[in-house]
Batch of 4 targets.
Target 1
Amino acid sequence: MVGLCIVVAFSMHCQRDSQVTMFAGPGEGPKTAEAKAHSQPDSKPAVASKTHSRQIKTVDAEFTPATESQVADASSNKAAQRDTTQSESSNGALAPGGGVASTASIQAKPIALPEIDKNESFARRDPLGFLRFCWDNYKQEIQDYRCTFTKHERIKGEFKPEQVADVRFRENPFSVDMTFTKNVGECARALYVANKWVDDEGNQQAWAKPGGAIVRLLISKILQPIHGTRAQKASRRTIDQFGFGKSFELIIKYSVKAKEVDALSLKYIGEGSIDGRPTYKFERILPYDGDESNYPDHLLEFHIDKQWLLPVACIAYSDQAGEDLLGSYIYTDVVLNPGYTPEDFDPDVINF
């Protein structure tokens, strides 16, 4: 369930009251690779996914689909025992600034693939339970990752250009290093570590590099708040809501909220594909009324990667027909558990 462009008000005088907005890709976003194509200017934008040719990959390690016995163990908070499979990367992961990050393996229990997809059966029978299981699996297995993040949003009725960013992420502490590579905008790069940079009023801050070449001559980087009125007007999601874990958290949170008032429709709708990888496709309908403080969208279509059980695409709409796009968030080129350290998110060490 996580989204992300950053809008930073940079000025020639570096005014302190400017806000930075980080586009995140939490789970509230749009129709996947198979989604309808949308025209951009006056109608609906195209949702990118089939255009991607990249492959999602791990560092010499694999997940195996969970069996129903594993599901039962997870639901009773008993961690499944796993055999440790050591994996090595050829040269390690190169961190921005020239640092080399070590590679960590993912522990997985090798099991024979069942004749029937047990996960698919679980997803069809209890989609919310399946999402909780996937979220638990993520929390147990994933410490960090890098990926290519593609985001397309409508903000205050206006479609913003599709943005692409290279992202490095670490779960604990929650750390994001996002470098934009397409439609850079006012912020070229953002670095956020939870509770690392806080102003005198207790506001969370992130380092930001301005996108304009002229501004960069005067300001190489600046600390900016990640929340605030200006930030909320500029982005549906902030940088502290980025990633797979936050996507799960938001999808489940609003699903539970709607279920409590008997207003949830959540179902598994079949097999899908994102970036050439097989996925489980889901459709969720909420009682959305345009006020996103109540519910974030009306229709959410999202894909869970079959191998890693991660939400690799979330596409949100304001209508049940899936024609009025709110936001599309797609993760590709994923490398799991590269072994990042706190130094890999230190602005001085990585020459931010």
Target 2
Amino acid sequence: MHPKTLTLCFAALLASACLGQQGGQAGEPPAGAPVTATQQDSAPKLTPEQLAEIQKILEERALKQTEAIRRAELEGVQTRLGDIGRFRGARGNVLQGIGLIVGLNGTGDSKSTPWTSTLISNVLSRWGTAVDARQVQAKNIATVLVTAEMPAFVAPGTKIDVTVSSNGDAKSLEGGVLMPTVLTSMTDPDTVLATAYGSVSIGGFNASSGGSGVRKNHPNVGIVAAGATVERSVPTQILFQGGVMYFDLDTPDFSTAERATEALKSAYPELTVETVDGATIKLTLPQGKSPTEVAQRVELTQVFANTPASVVVNERTGTIVVGGNVRLGPAVIAHGSLEVRIATDYVVSQPAPFSNGETVVVAVPQVDAQESPAQTAVVAPTATLDDLAKILQTMRVTARDMIAILMALQKQGALKARIVVQ
């Protein structure tokens, strides 16, 4: 193609003038937009041959995109092994503790939470001040559950985030400060693994007055960024007896496990690699080989991860996520909706002047039903994900209707995928 023609083609592509997507011909502005003389003079004038060349470029681009989608459905999506799995033993540990938040602006626990006064009394007695728990009435204190996740391999002195959650009747934790709190593991409550302290951030507010109020986010849960200091690390074992390491996939899949095994054998022939099951890959290290070096090389290995044929739906939010390997069998979809509206009008009957009658209010219900005509779509055999998207887009159904259609297709047997309802 001539350079000048190619320049005009790309200019037309950027302007979307020759695609017909905005209802006009080449060089025309969008519908309803004012056209100035400058725009008319600067609009590219394309010949039919140039338009045909642009259409050919677009068709080739769409064909390549379709081929890439089909190839990804068959071969999987290329990714790092470290992004879809982990080594056995390299896991985090959940820490927990009970703490006190002070400095609240009258939004703390009331007398209905008796353990708050008991805890603050115990804290004060530690410093030589004996206080009767029944006399504690301060509302600037709240009892919270403190939780955190300590990653694997962390060393003493490392800072981690903690989450504080009110377990009383506090109205808000805004502006509070978490007093020093010890954190232990779920299995050994006597061993202190971290200590937490710091200002609480709730990322919102809760204000009320005179029976009305406004709230942003959830004011009874907050975080203390880098608020916990690791005091003792948890021993982590990734190399087992016989110089064996196990790599576990987050989502078990035999195809992905076999592809990973073949990729590791090809990249690192000095390792003995075998697939144990759909989730575990066993690696036997030669004598003197560092497990951290092997772990680093394994995590960087590129592998084609299989995409499961599944549909995830959430009826509460109307969210639908369809996997790339979803296929449809022959089916006919007919969808219509019935809308019923029930309203009530009130008629007031006023008695004549100087009569002994009373004013009467009569409720008159009104019922209106409207049913839209059914929309019908035919699904061809082995229809793909993009075919399904085009069908549902053409039918112009809502998200909840789409969920109902997908469930009906699976029950009928035309949807060749698993539906996961959240």
Target 3
Amino acid sequence: MPDSETTVLRLTFGTETPAKTYTMEFNSPKPDLTEALIRQAMQVFIDGQVVAGKNGLLTTIEGAEIVTRQVTGLLA
């Protein structure tokens, strides 16, 4: 089994419910993303009120991270 690696951009927002967050993940983010660009994109989600989860609308930017996962197959 061949090795595989996946990378996602994980965005975490605060919601209308205190101490509750909402997380989105996007596959294959561009390698040249900047903090300013990510903040701008996250603010669009907040200002546009386009996402409402079980804890309400998105209200604040809580964090963003690039997550890389590597899987190494041991058995075919």
Target 4
Amino acid sequence: MADARSSLTPSPLSRTEAERLLEAVSAALALPIPPLGLPGTLDALVRLSEAAALLLAFPLGERDEPAPVFRP
């Protein structure tokens, strides 16, 4: 049985979903994407959604909080 958090974790975008999203955002922002740039932009969008899904799937406990100061 999956916990509530796993049902809220988004899955990566499919190529078709990325195309629809890019088309909608491009129209909403009145930002045309040149045909030569479209394949690379779609590839990047899909890869970014995969990376985001990995990060969002990382389990955090109830008491986990960000550090007050980041020190690498």
